[in-house]
From TrEMBL:
Domain (Integrase catalytic): residue spans on this chain: 148-311
Lineage: Bacteria, Bacillati, Bacillota, Bacilli, Lactobacillales
SUPFAM superfamilies to which the protein is assigned, alphabetical: Ribonuclease H-like
The protein's name: Transposase InsK for insertion sequence
One Pfam family named in its UniProt record: HTH_21
Coiled-coil region(s): none
Matches recorded under Gene3D superfamilies: Ribonuclease H-like superfamily/Ribonuclease H
InterPro entries: HTH-like_dom, Integrase_cat-core, RNaseH-like_sf, RNaseH_sf, Transpos_IS3, Transposase_IS3/IS150/IS904
Record GO biological process: DNA integration
Source organism of this protein record: Lactobacillus hamsteri DSM 5661 = JCM 6256
Amino acid sequence: MLAGQPKYRQAAIKKRWKIETYQLIHDCHQKYNWKIDLMCRWAKIARSAYYKYFDPQRQSSQRDERDKRIEAKIIEIAQSNNSLFGTEKMTMAVNRQMPDEKPVYHKTVYRLMRINGISSQKPRYQKPKFKHTTPEKTAENKLKRNFNASKPNEKWCTDITEITAPNLPKAYLCTIFDLYDRYPVGYAISKRNDTALVQSAYKQAIKAYPNAHPLFHSDRGFQFTRAPFQNQLEKQGMIQSMSRVGCCIDNGPMEGWQGIIKEMRVVLHSQPASYDELNASICKTIDYYINEDPQKRFNGLTAGEMRREALKDNIKSCPIAPNHRIERYWQKIHEKKIKEAKKILS
């Protein structure tokens, strides 16, 4: 089990084994009156190490005391969100909630999570099936996958997704999403996937930011291609942009955010008993994302904290990190096309 694992993982696993072994020996001695020295020989551990672990007068080192404080915070966070966070998110959350401590390293968090048997939950949800519709009036893709924004309300994306729960009607979520700070400026939930749903989310966003004139990007769903909706955008001073046919990556951040929210909802609120509870669980999940979910791109700040800082004119530059794997992929495609062109010419 330890073979091939990094050293810090091996140390965490061994530490957990020792703690579990010490506790097992202690329980067996209390319950069955088995001899401690005999059990220590069976477990191949030093008897002195066992007594040292349970010695009430043993003085902890500064590192042990710090580990206890970090461990308590990790357990508190994991219990509050049903172990939603993995090592990276947990590290950002601990540093965010323990500002008086020295910065906590992710290997320390991993070690303490492993010792306590804490790991991230990875739920799976059923992917929805959508019917193709004929668009009434389309727009050019003016966003062109440039997902960076220099300030709030410069670029908004929107989309609709369905959220399901066992034995309950589907809930449709329409969200309008700011690319600057990944903040949902407006959203609406309904049992029906119709134009009223989009209108409700749009009105909420405009009510919150009446002077916003962003680039407004969406896919080619019938709700966004209707002439009355496009006239609304034009009247508000927004420029409409649409993804190309069959190119969901053109609206990648929005698609990714919807997947994150659906996964978070399953972990935080796994078994809603009614449609109203499902509706409430979606709202609570979005609120948790805004206020409690730290973002690596924002150096551990949440989307809500980034928005509050920006509204105070403290606008931070947090560009999206380049994806070198995708860049290498497209570079190979480009080189292949050049070779083929040279063969044809020759």
